[in-house]
Amino acid sequence: MVQKLNQDPHATQQAREKVLEVAIGRAVRGHRKQQNMTVSNLSDLTGLSIGMLSKIENGNTSPSLSTMQSLANALSVPLTSFFRQYEERREAVHTKAGDGVETEREGTRAGHQYKLLGHIGSNSSGVIVEPYLIELTAESDTFETFQHDGIETIYMLEGAVDYRHGPNIFELRPGDTLFFDADSPHGPERLVKLPAKYLAVISYPQNQ
């Protein structure tokens, strides 16, 4: 039985304007939840319908400036707080082989094999984690860059790949790790040595 995942981890990101709407929606939802406020409560305070608030939180509409001011007043936050996630710098951490800190804690393309190693849907943590084993065994069409919600970690097992994250290119070799914000454009830029194999672990919030 094949389970359909909630998110295509390698889907092309929306246009820049849509990304702004999503960032505003996430900020509104985050502030609301921090104050243990329901959508109905926020509706009463702002005069906006529950349906409209749902569209705003899901990034499906562009709220007007007056609407955002009403939301800011109701949530007791500055209007600028809705734009912080959109404007913040996206970071990537590249750990070379042997440089890590030891710790203890509790649509495939031709010639490219993606193996989902596990998937947990609804869970109490509010986070979905999807580990993939990705094998690159032959040259394929030019890669499109990927963008999606969440955080991604790549651990290089064999072969060699030059991997793009935003404007930066990282030379991934066996034992290297790349940890990055996945809503910045990313993906293999050049297949240096084949076959190549790496583990990719994607984590993102459950749909609310």
TrEMBL record:
Taxonomy, superkingdom: Bacteria
Sequence ranges assigned to domain HTH cro/C1-type in this UniProt record: 28-82
The keyword Transcription regulation appears for this protein: no
GO cellular-component term (any): cytosol
Record's keyword terms, sorted: DNA-binding
Matching Pfam families: Cupin_2 (PF07883), HTH_3 (PF01381)
GO molecular function: DNA binding; DNA-binding transcription factor activity
InterPro entries membership: Cro/C1-type_HTH (IPR001387), Cupin_2 (IPR013096), Lambda_DNA-bd_dom_sf (IPR010982), RmlC-like_jellyroll (IPR014710), RmlC_Cupin_sf (IPR011051), TransReg_Diox_bact_type (IPR050807)
PROSITE patterns, alphabetized: HTH_CROC1
SUPFAM superfamilies, A to Z: lambda repressor-like DNA-binding domains (SSF47413), RmlC-like cupins (SSF51182)
PANTHER family per UniProt: HTH-TYPE TRANSCRIPTIONAL REGULATOR (PTHR46797), TRANSCRIPTIONAL REGULATOR (PTHR46797:SF2)
Protein name (Swiss-Prot/TrEMBL): Transcriptional regulator, XRE family with cupin sensor
Source species of the chain: Cognatiyoonia sediminum
